[in-house]
Design brief:
Layout (H helix, E strand, L loop, with lengths): L3 H12 L13 E4 L3 E5 L3 E6 L3 E2 L2 E2 L3 H19 L3 E9 L5 E3 L4 E10 L7 H7 L4 H17 L7 H19 L8 H17 L1 H9 L4 E2 L9 E2 L5 E2 L7 H4 E2 L1 H14 L5 H13 L5 H21 L9 H19 L4
Antiparallel strand pairs: 1-2, 2-3, 3-8, 4-5, 6-7, 6-8, 9-12, 10-11
Helix pairs in contact: 4-10, 5-6, 5-11, 6-12, 9-10, 9-11, 11-12
């Protein structure tokens, strides 16, 4: 583990200051996530990876963080080419100050992106009710063409099925913990329905493997990552784990549809899938889409509760309420799997 593990605080403190950046912005807005810090200037966004190690990723060395920055750049340029500008160094200059670029000792690496207007996200458009069918169809067309052009990846059926079973059981283990206060009968009902689907309807999963519908997709297709416009942009794919983005396009789209439904826009789903069918001629069964949505909702409930593990939790009620909302959605969807 390199020295930046101990010095992450210094890097964050420096990146909060305008003089750290070559463009000398007027102000900096800092956003912390599980795995990174994002610093927003007037024109750009700079992402600093945290020196962390989890079961599903390893950012514990500077070389690993540089590699992930380069992967983030490469993969996100597939759907947002104008946004991802480059990978830039954070250096300690001879006077001891930390600066983006220039001479000096290498401290870390940053992904530099063009800053996009937050009011153009699909999430915001759903919130204020401003999205249009044409805008959503343009997003769906971009994604459908992306999936159609993607090279099919080999994935064994047993591995594919087992991956879902593992996820369902992991979700169940977290959501049933009594300290979370979720309805035990609801938790059990959701996951029994999902496991029953895997046992009795696995032919639907097998058909996706057989017909070569597994590709390297996005993996985290949420409304806040989608920017509407004449030429939509889709950011923030899961760059750190190939397995997480090796999936069925119907699963990718189902995740987006589930999140839109949670935000109060269930009518977006038919627009997404109608456009996908028109462009790709692929027609995933409705029951499979509902299964994908239900499992994704369970996963999001689990991830909401994981926020309670952070050293400082600012709003416990927010995350417990969020998990309960996702669980209700997963329950409604699981009830449609028959």
């Amino acid at each position: 583990m390199d020295a930046s593990v101990a010095n992450i605080g210094q890097s964050v403190e420096a990146l909060r200051r305008p003089e750290t950046y070559p463009e000398r912005p007027a102000r900096i807005e800092a956003i912390e996530t599980h795995m990174s810090w994002v610093f927003l200037t007037d024109l750009y966004a700079y992402k600093l990876k945290k020196p962390v190690r989890y079961e599903f990723l390893d950012f514990s060395t500077i070389d690993a963080r540089r590699h992930d920055c380069e992967e983030e750049l490469r993969l996100n340029r597939r759907l947002a080419l104008p946004v991802y500008l480059g990978v830039v160094p954070l250096r300690r200059h001879p006077d001891g100050s930390l600066r983006v670029g220039g001479p000096g000792e290498l401290v870390d690496w940053l992904v530099k992106m063009r800053r996009l207007p937050a009011d153009r996200t699909l999430q915001e458009a759903i919130r204020i009710g401003s999205w249009t069918e044409d805008e959503v169809r343009r997003v769906a067309s971009l994604l459908s063409a992306f999936y159609k052009d993607a090279r099919p990846l080999y994935l064994g059926f047993a591995e594919y099925r087992e991956r879902f079973k593992k996820d369902v059981l992991a979700n169940l283990a977290e959501l049933r913990r009594p300290e979370h206060g979720l309805q035990a009968d609801q938790v059990q009902r959701v996951h029994e329905a999902q496991l029953d689907f895997l046992e009795c309807r696995s032919d639907l999963l097998y058909a996706r493997i057989r017909d070569h519908h597994i590709v390297e997709g996005h993996g985290d297709l949420r409304p806040e990552h989608i920017y509407l416009g004449d030429e939509p942009l889709i950011t923030d794919c899961l760059e750190f784990n190939l397995q997480f983005r090796t999936l069925d396009p119907a699963d990718d789209l189902a995740f987006l549809a589930m999140e839109c439904e949670r935000l109060g826009a269930p009518s977006i789903e038919p627009l997404l899938f109608d456009t996908y069918r028109e462009i790709t001629s692929d027609r995933p069964p409705k029951a499979l889409i509902q299964f994908y949505k239900s499992v994704r909702a369970g996963l999001r409930a689990k991830l909401a509760l994981w926020h309670l593990r952070e050293p400082v939790v600012r709003d416990v009620k927010k995350w417990r309420d969020r998990a309960a909302i996702y669980l209700r959605l997963a329950d409604n969807l699981a009830g449609q799997l028959d």
